[in-house]
Design goal:
The protein is mainly α. The chain contains 8 helices and 2 strands; from the N terminus they run ααααααααββ. It has a two-stranded parallel sheet with strand order 1-2. Helix 1 packs across helix 4.
Length: 203
Amino acid sequence: MARMSAEERRESVIRAAISEFARGGYNGTSTEVIAKRVGVSQPYLFRLFKNKRELFLAAALRCLEETPKAFADAIEQRPDSSPMEAMAAAYMRLIDDSDKLLMQMQTYVAVASADAAGDHEFGERIRAGWAEVWDQAQVAFAGDSKQATDFLGCGMLINVLVALGFPEEHRVWSGLDMSDIRVTSDAKVPSGVQAGSGADVPR
């Protein structure tokens, strides 16, 4: 079997970090656990990432980067769909990965904690990544900030309800009207949603 390159190993570590940090948060996850999941030693892991904070940041940014890319790819691959329809379906598929959804939640807590502790550089890098998500949505909606806000706001509410584990039949889904954010049958949407036809401070 061919040996993995350093870049391939780095990708494996990031994927493992997303899975572990998603459930354990920053302080609750050891680099030893991440290294073991990948099958490398801790010293080797720290050759790829200088410290735990850098690894957490790489994992968080990877999750953020995948969202605007998924939006852009969906629009390109589904030219017969409206941008809103294509992006909604793409986002539903993204958050079907519970690791990525929970990593989002851990990231928001980490940014707030880091800012409170005076580590503003960490938050600035995450905010820049989130701004890319906003920019992609606004471009897709031809600069319409209201549509971009409605789309992303709906997505964030779905994040919360899914992360909290509300069952599909619960009343909290009943007011979530996605009739203007049309989703197709290949996207997983809780049955109660009205849809269109078609951590601690990371130091």
